[in-house]
Design goal:
4 helices; elongated; 0% strand; mainly alpha
């Protein structure tokens, strides 16, 4: 028989996970919107040049470069930071789920969720290769 304490804990954990997802998505949307508005303000009257290819600069290839340039109000980096927050949101949710299942002492789900977390992290850091 499931106790009232257990169902209350389940409800609280599900609510907290839902709020975590909502907060992550809203935060990412706000960051991307800020970067997009800043980009439009900085480049409102710039004419695009499609005849010359310009590769992305090296600062957008690592997290420290993105953070430094976002703090310097580089609009491209602010948008990239928002996308990174959006990508990190489900990973944080899975980490929180591992903690929730550990609190409930449900070893099977802890192991299964750790496997999912491992797959997520592997694909993020290796590019799925």
């Amino acid at each position: 028989m499931v106790s009232d304490r257990q169902t209350g804990l389940d409800r609280m954990l599900a609510t907290t996970i839902g709020y975590t997802l909502r907060a992550g998505v809203l935060t990412a949307a706000a960051i991307v919107l800020t970067g997009g508005l800043l980009y439009l303000a900085q480049n409102a009257f710039a004419a695009p040049d499609y005849h010359t290819f310009r590769a992305e600069s090296t600062y957008s290839r690592d997290l420290s470069g993105i953070l430094q340039n976002a703090l310097a109000l580089n609009s491209d980096s602010i948008i990239e930071l928002g996308l990174l927050v959006l990508i990190a949101t489900p990973v944080v949710r899975v980490i929180f789920s591992v903690i929730a299942f550990a609190i409930e002492r449900d070893i099977l789900y802890v192991v299964a969720t750790l496997i999912v977390l491992g797959i997520l992290l592997y694909s993020l850091f290796t590019g799925g290769v």
